[in-house]
Amino acid sequence: MTTQPVYPDLKGKSVFITGGGSGIGAELTKAFLLQGAKVAFVQRSDATAFCDEMEKETGNRPLFIPTDITDIAALKSSIAKASDAHGPVTVLVNNAANDQRHATLETDEEFWDWSQSINLKPYFFACQAVIPGMQEAGGGSIINFSSISYMMGAGGFPAYTTANSGINGLSRSLAREFGPDRIRVNALAPGWVFTQKQLDKWATPEGVAKHLELQCLKDKLVPEDISGGILFLASDSSKMMTGQMMVIDGGVVVTG
């Protein structure tokens, strides 16, 4: 496992993560727990065993709130519960997403709306829900997960890449609007991170080899490679960084 630096200002911080019990999200939960943060997370599937594991491993138990993020009222209620338990959320990580493959000519309105209800809509409303508490607290950090897939013009999931691009625009607009409140809003775009889901569904040997050819660095990305960037964006070490897109992809895309 990658050794992460310690950010003293994250100790005791109220952190809220969507999809924080599996994949990249689970690694983020663990990383914040190791910093001494108070972590709450939501997802649909039961994460009790994961919470037990984290408490044993880190000595710091996360608060799991079963939630379907497509239910905006439930999402807002979960953020309120996290704030009641840990104090106003001052670090929000919008991580949950679904990159289900689909063909343009076979995509109907129902699928399109379903995709946006997971990959874009809850990002906005989670931000909306935490901002008043951040204003009262004197600031905060919002980190929205995007993906390099839209930057690459990747095919095979246009509803997903549309949401990714929208997340970047959302982050920049909110950064401008709430900068005077010392609320920072940044996006993070990972490359192809080999979570268990990716390995089970889409990571064929041929596909992996082709993608690694695109990377400057030839190692496979794993969830631990992403958590360091998230900790940095959450901490005061990035206190003058907002409205930006951080890319962690092994060198597939070049920004600037």
From TrEMBL:
* Gene3D superfamilies reported in the protein's UniProt record: NAD(P)-binding Rossmann-like Domain
What is the protein named? Answer: SDR family oxidoreductase
Q: Does the keyword Oxidoreductase apply?
A: yes
Record keywords, A-Z: Oxidoreductase
Q: Does the keyword Oxidoreductase apply?
A: yes
Q: Which InterPro entries match?
A: KR_dom (IPR057326), NAD(P)-bd_dom_sf (IPR036291), SDR_fam (IPR002347)
Under Gene Ontology molecular function, one entry of this record is: oxidoreductase activity, acting on the CH-OH group of donors, NAD or NADP as acceptor
Please indicate which superkingdom the organism of origin belongs to: Bacteria
Q: Say which species the protein is native to.
A: Halocynthiibacter halioticoli
Q: Which residues form the Ketoreductase domain?
A: 13-205
